[in-house]
Design a protein that fits this description.
The protein is mainly beta. Strands 1, 2, 3, 4, 5, 8, 9, 10, 11, 12 and 15 form an eleven-stranded mixed sheet that branches. A two-stranded parallel ribbon has the order 6-7. The protein has a two-stranded antiparallel ribbon with strand order 13-14. It starts with 6 loop residues before the first strand and ends with a helix.
Length: 190
């Protein structure tokens, strides 16, 4: 989750989000069937970081709820997702191994987290602006929004969309302020 105090210098809206997920993690460039998508990756080694996910992505059932996009930053799967590429934010998508301080490098970590370690093979995405505020909790990595099932007309198989049993979580260590910069992101692509 992105905290409300943030300074945005550049927001990229060139990619679609694939999975339902909470905002605030590092998205990477993923190609599926020739289509470039923005997605959290389990292993950032060798992957191209795009920036922080700016809005939640969740399945939206328009028959049972008002359109939430008018009230908060939310989109549906395969819609364009906002990706923060330059600015200062406070995020809880954190997986630290040490004690990061202001000015220390921030790297893309596993499953969309930001980390202080190069052990995961992720590229540098910016710098930390302060120490970690410890508050361990779970984040929704995939599986937000409503769940529905229906019978497929040709095969008569029961199809479950966004099955609550498939929800996956990421452990967060707390919140931390990060300055992300396009200068680091571009270097990670070379």
């Amino acid at each position: 989750m992105l905290k409300p105090l943030r300074q945005i210098a550049a927001l990229n809206v060139d990619f679609c989000g694939f999975d339902t997920a909470d905002r605030g993690g590092i998205l990477h460039l993923v190609t599926a069937s020739g289509i470039d998508l923005a997605r959290y990756v389990a292993n950032p080694s060798g992957q191209t970081p795009l920036g922080f996910q700016f809005n939640d992505i969740e399945n939206i059932d328009y028959t049972r709820q008002p359109d939430p996009r008018r009230n908060r930053e939310v989109g549906a799967p395969f819609e364009t997702v906002g990706i923060l590429t330059d600015g200062d934010i406070e995020t809880d998508w954190v997986h630290v191994l040490g004690s990061p301080q202001a000015g220390d490098p921030a790297y893309a970590g596993p499953s969309g987290t930001v980390t202080d370690s190069t052990n995961f093979g992720g590229s540098q995405i910016g710098i930390f602006l302060g120490p970690l505020n410890p508050n361990p909790h779970l984040l929704i990595h995939r599986g937000r929004g409503f769940s529905t099932s229906y019978q497929e007309s040709c095969t008569h198989a029961i199809i479950v969309e966004n099955d609550p049993n498939d929800i996956s979580f990421v452990q967060s260590d707390g919140t931390i302020k990060v300055r992300i910069s396009q200068a680091y992101l571009v270097r990670g692509r070379v």
